[in-house]
Structure formats: C-alpha cells, structure tokens
Write a structure and sequence with these properties.
By secondary structure, this protein is of the alpha/beta class. It has two domains: 176 residues, 3-Layer(aba) Sandwich (Rossmann fold), CATH 3.40.50; 73 residues, no CATH class. 33% of the residues lie in helices and 23% in strands.
Amino acid sequence: MTTRPLIEVKNISLRYEHNVVLEDITLTIDEREIVSIVGPNGSGKSTLLKTIMGLKEPFTGTVTVNGMNPNEARKKGMFGYLSQQSSYDSQFPVRAWDVVAMSRYTRTGLFEKLLRQDRAVIETSLDRVGMLEHRNQHFGSLSGGQKQRVLIARALALEPKILLLDEPATGLDAVAQDSFYELLQKLRTESGLTILMVSHDIGAVSEIVDKLACINRKIHFHGKPSECQPHEMIAKVFGSNIHVVRHDKNCPTCRGER
C-alpha cells in the first residue's frame, strides 16, 4: 500500500511582475523527513518555502499539504515557521520564556491571560530544545546557538506537524551548527516532526538530511544526497567556480581545539 506524501508540489511557477522566480517546480516530502532546499542567494529558495506555506500564490501548478491547500493547512496549525530575519533587539527586556510565549498569544490574543495548558506547552517546548533551565534568562544575553534554540521552541509551541526553517544556521559557528543539526534530528526522531529547511550550505546539510532539493529557479536535483552527482549539479545550481567544503565535526581544529 502506497502512502501519500505529506507535502506535494506539482509544476508550480511563480513570478514577480515580469520576472520568473520559480519555474515548473515539482517535489514531494514524506512525513518525518528532513529535507533541505539548497541554492545560491536569489535562487527562489525562500519563495518556495513561503509558497508551500500559502504565503505566496503560484500562477501555475498546485501545492497540497496533508491533502489540504496551504492556506487551510496553515489555519489548522500545521506549520511552525522560523524566518530568516527572526531577531530581537538585544536591549529589549524579554526573557527566553517570553519569546516562546509569543506564539501562544497568537491563539489567545495579545491581552488575554495564558492558561495553564499554554504555560505547559511553553515549558515543554523549551525543554525539547534543551533551554528550559534558561527560561528566565534575558534573550539578548544568550549565545547565537541558544537564541536559535529558543526561536525553534517558539515555533514548536504552536504544536505543528511541519517545521519550516529559513537559513536557520546562518551566523552560527561550526560547533553551534553541529549542535543545531543534531537538535533537528532529535526533534524528528522524538516528536515525529517533518522538517523543511532552506540553506545555501550544501556541504553541511548533506550530512543530516534525507533529501536535497537543489534549485536555481528550476529544480536541478531532488533526492537522497548519496544519489546526487555533486560536480554536475553544483555547476548548474551554484556555478562552475564553487567547491563543496564538508565540515568534519570530529576534527579537533573544526571544534576549536588546539
């Protein structure tokens, strides 16, 4: 018996005015998969992510999420989203707990009191990303990796089935990146989440994802990293002068040891 993919993108194209941003994109994502959309800046990665969420409307093709259109899926709380610009003023007096609580206020209303159930979800979300003991710490005082974990907890507090991440490892050093990617694998294993992540770093994400979707306006590869022909694909997507550098987390130099 075959199962239907959780996310199905069929022949979508999207343009801004007269510029084609995405052209004839088709891909599928199964439940509990970790998939990365990879490509250079301006290749349409973030636009594809937003189209899957229903925030952008394709002019051709269809997107279905668990059998629903993206807008319906979003209204039913299917998505937890971490945008590329997720940041806060480091001087703003907000705790890690408060950042996560913001996602619950989208359900209760900003001036409504959080219920015991809401507070339990916030605590659980912080615990799932290893940040419960830092819940009362000023968000601006956290490290880059800790901030990303809190922002992931904010997305988890919506209790989604699908986690959508736009360049989540940007600005993190190699050690923090490894820790962050290990967290994503843990969330998939323990919570059954499906994770769709935008990245430009094919060398890093190839080590942890089930599938790659390599795009530069069009899909140039969609499948398991082990099936990818790197030199041919990279030339099409990134250009012929790009080389892949893989980070080895077992390397003492990469870990910052001397």
